[in-house]
Amino acid sequence: MERISVCILWTMCSSARLWCHEGPEHEIEEITKRLKKEGESADSYLDRAMEYQLLSNHAEAARDLERALELEPNNAPAHRELGRVYFRLGKPAEAMTVLGKGLTLIATPREHATLLVARAEILLLKNENEKALEDVEGAITRHSTSLEWYLLRSRLHARLGKTEARIRGLEEGIERTGSGLLEVELADALIDAGAYERVIARIEKKLEQARWRSGWLIRRARVHLAAGQKEEATADLNEAVAELSRRINSAAPEPSLLATRGRAHDLLSKRDLARSDYEAAKSRGFDEDWLADRLKLFKKEAEDAAKR
Amino acid sequence: MLKPSPGHGRLALFAALVACWGVESAHAINPRPPFARMPYLQFATPSSIHVVWRTEGQIQPVVRWGLAAEKLDSSSRESIITTRAALGVEGQAGRSAWASLSTPENLRLPRLHSAPLGTFQYEVKLAGLRSSTRYHYAVYDGSRRLTPPGEPYTFVTPPEIGAHVPTRFWVLGDSGTGRQPQTAVYSAMRAFVERTGKPLDFWLHVGDMAYGQGRDMEFQSRFFEIYEESLASSVCWPTMGNHEGHTSRGDTGIGPYYDAYVVPTRGEAGGLASGTEAYYSFEHANIHFICLDSHDLDRKPTGAMASWLRADLELARADWVIAFWHHPPYTKGSHDSEKEQDLIEMRQHIMPILESEGVDVVLTGHSHIYERSMLMDGAYGRDTVAENNILDDGDGDPSGDGAYRKSEGIHPHEGTVQVVAGHGGAALGRNGTLSVFKRTIAEHGSVIFDVRGDTLTATMLNHVGQERDLFQIVKRGKVTPVRIPLPWKPADSNFIGGSANSAAPPVDHQVLIPKHSEWRYFYGSQPQDAGWNRAEFPMVGWSCGTAPLGFGHQQLRTVLQRPRDGRAALYLRHEFNVPQADRVTEIGLLINYQDGFIAYLNGCEVLRRGVGPSSGNNLQEIVSRPDPTEVYLPVGQALKHLKDGVNLLAIEAHSAGGDSLDFLIHPVLLLEN
Q: Residue B194 in contact with residue B229, Cβ under 8 Å?
């Protein structure tokens, strides 16, 4: 009983220290004091590592996470964060090792799943797509309601050309989470798979509902183009470009709008305008695979033209 | 049906500990048995609402409701009841009184993350309701009524989506300390509501509702017990703060925060289905609300949350769009949006989406202060600049510069007002002033929003009920936004070390070091011992002088000699007494100075203004302050250095030198209990 009371008091007192928190630097100071006064604990090192990450000080974060794992080798968040930090520090091999070790030590389904996803994210960046897919599948099996993981799986399926698996996976995600975003992703997956009849009704419905229509106009244009209806496609694409240009603040553009307008230009065969929008979107952090692929293609075409 | 409560003795001790803890927690009434958490409302639509509560042990949950308190003629069906339980894993209950509850059926129930063993949470959806209608309700265990008949368990359902109905909501952030400022802010809101005769339709909490780590017991004592009455009659729509993020996770949707709230994930309240409780949207009358998780999810423009936000806004057809989350994209309060990565990402990745889709107001917390911008658009850079990013540099007050104007409907890039409402109870702090802000007020408080047709009015109420700021947005006709190349700027927004722009001192402050006090001072060179700002320092060769001290000014009481180069350095010390340091909620300097200074409390730096890095002879830069005026500067960082008994305030004051002929320092120390 006494232990419980002491524990409650300790919890309250330790919480009170956090009320006056004033930014990561201050938090780091406070946690450092706590470590000196109360001794080392994995949680304190983990807390401090998270603050270092907010300041982009990944080297210090790594040191704290390493110490946290020395103190508590089964600490799942410490494994996950250390994996991510190592990767940011340009140490992919160490990242994979620490996540792999975490996966052998931590059996709780949810924690195990988050480690699998952390490893899959690294594998995706290393372009090891089959392995990444295996990890995401494992994660979804263990914890099936995280919609981000369904999106990650869809991206991997797309990379690997597994069009039917992508569609089935997204349908499963929609059933489990009800996410409207997965429905948008499913529409793209159906178009990519050439399943135009399955997708056109969805597109028309969204075009009726939406205040901003450009994304859905472009999807419909892709269907029109596949059916050889160039005139209808051009009309949709021109409408999309006009709407997107109204929405884009030219001094500080939103990257996804640039990417979307680039795609409309691209489908209209206005390659220079497309390239300009794509490059501007990429420079502002828009890193989707399809855009990278288009830019690669443009570059290759330019190089080939130069050779000729 | 209600099982015995083996933990009553433990609970009593816990209650005693809370009461003895010196947090002025007398207001925190423990839930009345058999409740472990009193009934509260969640997730309302025009035709439904959720009633949620907890009991210690299992009951047969029933909610009855009706149009009159004495006629509760509708009753919940089991099919729309979600039950969660804390029973541990099989066998964990051991020989305790809860062992009999650990049936295979109960062990299959969704689990409460960390509630005390034996806790059952019931979430009952009342469906088939009429919009804009007052209902009364009561909670039962089978046929036994649990909520007392005399208490006002009642709510009004939201109006139909799109209806032009006056709406009032309360915005609160960083409140969950359990301390006096939290309850003062709550009382001030309730008094305002009563005075103005328009009850809250609902409220938004912008995070940090359960310090320090969002644990289940912290939610109970610092949120549910404090706001019990309002929670029983109006829905609180939440967003997760970093303190809740210690124990709850956005990607898995698991933790005490996710146990506490029921929010729409499938677009049930309007908006696009988010598929997660971490972020969601809902509509109330003609307003579209968006809640984001700024704490622990991917904030990149291609991340799931940003993609959902874009898709949600493409569908929105309301007259108003209001977004809320925890980490402010613009602040110089207790946090700095130009330094901290999560704040920077919300500005650089999320704000462009919102503004290109026509957001009107963004509500955040995290920074323990009230900050409110002018009408702005497009300020996404690493450093926040006002030039060409302000569309109206007035105060937005209809009795001042006039309301902000936007076109009717939702249009891209017509301007947003940013409101940082992290002043709901936690210790205040301030690092400076951003040039996009019209108001920076370091006082505890909250914000009341009233939307009436095409006009939105926001009123900042401080903890004693004063209306400290008011702005309006009117959306009427067609407005063509014009970017202002050189907008109004808050005074001193470029000062090194932050702004000297005045905040108001706490209304109920005490003076620790009065005006015209006598100070010990050392002038002409730097004290030889680096510990001059510590209590134990022997003040050999130090003089006594009455403030203000300096040269070149008329009102000086201690005139110093101007050095040849004009660059003066003055070191000051003054002791003061604080009987009980943990009762102090704010400490601040009311100070007139020229040109810069650094303040130390018990040897630790707590504030600097007008000076660059380092100190003493090594000071790297001093910025001229040609027209000194008295300002109040809260010193949030000082609280942690304050101790019972005698404390020492030390100040080093510096003049910029060069052509400057003047030098001045006149500090007054205030505190709020």
A: no
- For B410, the closest chain A residue by CA position comes to A211
Sorted by sequence, the CB contacts under 8 Å of residue B150 that are 6+ apart come out as: none
In the CATH hierarchy, which fold is given to the domain comprising B167-475?
Purple Acid Phosphatase; chain A, domain 2 (3.60.21)
Q: Which residues of A touch B341 (CB under 8 A)?
A: 53-56
Residue-wise pLDDT tens digits, A178-221:
999 999 999 999 999 999 999 999 999 999 999 999 999 999 99
Among B179, B208, B251, B586, most A C-beta atoms within 10 A, so best to mutate, is B251
Which range (B46-55, B439-448, B511-520) has the least confidence? B511-520
Is residue A181 one of the residues assigned to a domain?
A: no
B contacts of A153 (beta carbons < 8 Å):
none
Tokens representing A52? 């270092």
Q: Is the pLDDT of residue B5 over 80?
A: no
Chain B residue with the nearest C-alpha to that of A113: B252
Three-state secondary structure along B42-56? EEEECCEEEEEEEEE
Q: Which fold has domain B510-672?
A: Jelly Rolls (2.60.120)
CATH code of domain B8-156 = 2.60.40.380
CATH of the domain at A49: 1.25.40.10
Contacts of B276 in chain A (CB under 8 A): 145-147, 177, 179
CB proximity list for B259: less than 8 A, separation 6 or greater? B84, B112, B113, B115, B121, B216
B40 Cα to chain A: minimum distance (Å): 25
What does the alpha-carbon distance between residue A19 and residue B311 come to, in Å, rounded to a whole number? Answer: 37
Contacts A–B by Cβ distance under 8 A: 180
**Which residue segment(s) compose the domain that A39 sits in?**
16-106
Here the tokens at position A274 are: 């497309």
Strand order in the sheet with B35-45: B35-45, B48-56, B119-126, B81-86
Return the domain boundaries, chain B: 8-156, 167-475, 510-672
What residues in A contact B339, CB-CB < 8 Å? Answer: 23, 55
B-chain residues near A19 (CB < 8 A)? 177, 179, 211-212, 426-427
Q: Is residue A139 part of a domain?
A: no
CB distance A23–B276 less than 8 Å? no
**Is pLDDT at B7 greater than 60 in this prediction?**
no
